[in-house]
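#struct-help
A.M.: can someone run this one for me? Single chain, 247 residues.
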Amino acid sequence: MRRVYQALANFSRTAVGGGELVAFDFDLQQFAETYRIKALDAHNSLRILEREGFVQLNEAVNNPARVHIPINHTDLYHFQVANQQHDQLIKSLLRFNGGELFAGFQRISENSLAQYLRLSVVDVRKMLLFLHRSGIIHYQPKHESPQALFTTARYDADKLPLDQKRLNEARELARHKTESVIRYAAGGAAASNCCWNTSGSWTPRPATSATSAWRRKRPGRKHQRPRNCAGTWWRCSRLPPKRPGKF
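D.P.: on it. Structure tokens below:
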């Protein structure tokens, strides 16, 4: 896992202590081939790192643009006063998203901003990039390709604070489930009478109502399923006909 974390830092060219919440394009197959890691091992390790809160993977979907304001209100106000050409854009961002922009990344619509400001989408993107380079906002443009990012400042891989106890528990649970699936596949027809419970083990399946009806005997009468009968006993044509007057 540490090797995959270090490889991801090399892939994104992120130095120790940097790269927090900075997204970059990520191709798993290219990543695995570049650093000679099996694609499945790389994927599993990255998912574990994601659960541990060190990285985030975004699938190849239409990801809208996102913005976060990392500075406080006072510094932002001073910037607006000194840069009137960007004041309306900042006010528009706050109008559409409110104070949540200071708490974390929020989705924005570049088209809506362009219509509101009566500018082209290209101009809006240029202004957002300028604010990003100036340190006023963190801006992630719209993407349709897979992306990854470090959710914390990048650690030295050897000092990555992994929760080893939790990782061992997750590994043991995965092993237990795999063994249960193997036992199920090897059990054949016998396994069809079992079901999976929440603890990851197999328990017998309770008899169905049809099975219970078949096993239940009526007082004074013996019902026996005839041989070579594919259907259930109450539908079998080989049963003797009822006597007149008998119900």
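A.M.: thanks! The first strand starts at residue 24 and ends at 25.
D.P.: also worth noting: The chain has ten helices and eight strands.
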